[in-house]
Amino acid sequence: MTGTRYLQGVVPDNGTPVDALTERHFKRGFYSPIHDDVYKNFNEVKALYTATNAKAIIYVHIEFCESEEYDLPDLKKMIRKEGIPMHVVDTEYQTTSLSHVRTRLQAFFESLRGGSL
């Protein structure tokens, strides 16, 4: 769920901009890899997948992030058990080149279209 909090929720168009942004901020979901278990993360990912009619999940994994390293194997297992196609993109905090990510995602999209996962 790395980075998804910035995309969650709609800013209401009534009231002052500050009040609207504040309302959106407090309605967003949260996940603490230190205090929450992997089931909460799984339920949020699955709900987002279902609500958006997505065809797959692309999970951005920050390498050497200890809490993500701990939960990722269980999360992958739960998602695959549901029959949901998933691709994990490994990245670093300071990624300078995204060409390898683009190539891997293109291959993943082709596998979705071809039906071979």
Structure description:
The protein has 4 helices and 2 strands. It has helices spanning 17-27, 38-51, 66-81, 99-114; strands spanning 57-62, 86-91. It has a two-stranded parallel ribbon. Helix 2 crosses helix 3. The protein starts with 16 loop residues before the first helix and ends with a helix. The model has no long low-confidence stretch (mean pLDDT 80).
Walk me through the topology.
Blueprint: H1 17-27, H2 38-51, E1 57-62, H3 66-81, E2 86-91, H4 99-114
Parallel strand pairs: 1-2
Helix pairs in contact: 2-3
CATH class of the largest domain: Alpha Beta
Structural class by secondary-structure content: mainly alpha
Order of helices and strands: HHEHEH
CATH architecture of the largest domain: 3-Layer(aba) Sandwich
Q: Rg, please? A: 16 Å
Q: Helical element count?
A: 4
Instruction: Characterize the biggest β-sheet.
Output: 2 strands, parallel
What is the chains' assembly state? single chain
Query: CA-to-CA gap between the ends?
Result: 22 Å
Number of domains: 2
Any idea of the CATH topology of the largest domain? Rossmann fold
Can you list the strand order of the major beta sheet?
1-2
Annotation, overall tally of beta strands: 2
What amount of the residues lies in strands? 5-15%
Uncertain spans: none
Mean pLDDT: 80
Query: How much helical structure, as a percent, in the residues?
Result: 40-55%
Shape descriptor reads globular
